[in-house]
Amino acid sequence: MTAHPSPTTALAGSGSAAAPSASSPVNRLRPRRSCLAVPGSNPRFLEKAQGLPADQVFLDLEDACAPLAKEGARHTIVDALNNGDWTGKTRVVRVNDWTTHWTYRDVITVVEGAGQNLDCIMLPKVQDAQQIVALDLLLTQIEKTMGFEVGKIGIEAQIENAQGLNNVNAIAQASQRVETIIFGPADFMASINMKSLVVGEQPPGYPADAYHFILMKILMAARANNLQAIDGPYLQIKNVDGYREVAGRAAALGFDGKWVLHPGQVEAANEVFSPSQEDYDHSELILDAYDWCTSEAGGKKGSAMLGDEMIDEASRKMALVIAGKGRAAGMQRTTKFEHPSTEKTAEA
Question: β-pairing, 309-311 with 304-306?
Answer without folding.
Answer: antiparallel
